[in-house]
Amino acid sequence: MLYLPLLCLAVVSQLVSGDQQQQLALSSAASAFSQQLYQKVALDKPNVIYSPYSIHSALSMTSLGARGDTATELAQTLGVTSLGASTHAAYKELIQQLNAVKDVALNTGNAIFVNWNYNLVQQFVEDVTNDYFAKSSNIDLSAPGGPEKPINDYIAAKTENMIQNVLPRGSIDASTVMVLVNTIFFNGTWDHQFSKYKTVSQDFHKVGGAIGKVDMMHDERTLKIKRDNSNGVDVAELPFKGGRFSLYIALPQKVDGVSDLEKLLATPGKVDDLFTGLSPVRLNLALPKFKIETTLTLNSALRDLGIVKAFSPMAADFTGITQSAQVYISQVLHKAMIEVQETGTVAAAATVISMVALSVQLPPNQYFVADHPFVYFLRDNQTGQILFQGKFSG
């Protein structure tokens, strides 16, 4: 039944060196994929959070077992056609670098849970273990609480219990071939924390003209920002300790400008422009405290983006995983959570792929007040990888 490659991504913070060109190509591909996905999953939601890194990495892991047109569609949609097989080497380097980070709590975990009753292609198991450092375990069909429980427990442990019960009871049985798990967890302290005593309830202008209340954090500080008048957006960078990771706030200059910003993100290369050209400015900063949890079913979105054959019982070609049964992706689920508060930001995500067989202190004279809908990015400034992306509309 379910060939559940469950992928939950766990992030760590600090990358070492490596093939810079490969890493830039990988981050560019993942960024472009993220903006295409945003257009499919976020436009109709007031608040959303997802991990481009988790989803892109999970699908890349799965592509190790894809062949023929199935492999071609995955590579094209993920934007890694030019990287070819080096995609997996680039991820291997990236995982090593992320797991070496010191200044923030960032950890990544990959695992495969295998039903050895199926004749799996050993090369696939070896490649996932080698390139993605995946831990290999057996699916325990007789596990107390069901075979899903050990996998859910693994995900919860790797994400500090932020992501729980990804696999529902009954989703794994004797026909499940394999479950792939990828987890990402991030917990960073602001380089410059907000004072809790300055947080006050404040008006927030919602889409459509309504006004609600949010807990707004305030501070006076020097911050890197830019005023992009040509595109009608202001961008602020809030770095975490160590400076490698930052939360970027892309705030439309118009109160009702979030739709125009979302259209801008759909233009190739525009999202990368948001992170360039920022300069330090002394200002009054106001940013909402918020906590968002999102669960997405990605089948339809991924089909729309070009991954079609992988979901087809008759056309899918995953013979690189097993040749003893016809398997295809039955479901891709993603669950993510983020909490932004005075001390810092914590975020986690899990992607589940189910496969079925058959300085100078000047007085502030500027403001950055995020009192209307905005888009945000939690980004690795060293590699350019967008670890988390979302929207806040109050």
Structure description:
- This protein has 394 residues and is α+β, with helices and mostly antiparallel strands.
- It has helices spanning 20-41, 52-63, 68-78, 86-98, 122-132, 148-158, 258-265, 270-273, 299-305; strands at residues 2-3, 6-9, 48-50, 105-114, 135-138, 178-189, 200-205, 211-228, 233-239, 245-252, 279-288, 290-297, 327-340, 344-357, 366-369, 374-380, 386-392.
- Strands 3, 7, 8, 9, 10, 11, 15, 16 and 17 form a 9-stranded mixed sheet that branches.
- The longest helix is centred in the N-terminal third of the chain and has 22 residues, at 20-41.
- Residues 1-18 have low confidence and may be disordered.
- Belongs to the serpin family.
Which terms would index this structure?
394 residues; 35% strand; disordered N terminus; single chain; eight-stranded mixed beta sheet; nine-stranded mixed beta sheet
Summarize the structure.
The chain has 394 residues and is an alpha+beta fold. The protein is built from 9 helices and 17 strands.
Sequence-ordered SSE layout with sheet pairings:
Elements: E1 2-3, E2 6-9, H1 20-41, E3 48-50, H2 52-63, H3 68-78, H4 86-98, E4 105-114, H5 122-132, E5 135-138, H6 148-158, E6 178-189, E7 200-205, E8 211-228, E9 233-239, E10 245-252, H7 258-265, H8 270-273, E11 279-288, E12 290-297, H9 299-305, E13 327-340, E14 344-357, E15 366-369, E16 374-380, E17 386-392
Parallel strand pairs: 4-5, 11-15
Antiparallel strand pairs: 1-14, 2-14, 3-17, 4-6, 6-14, 7-8, 8-9, 8-11, 9-10, 10-16, 12-13, 13-14, 16-17
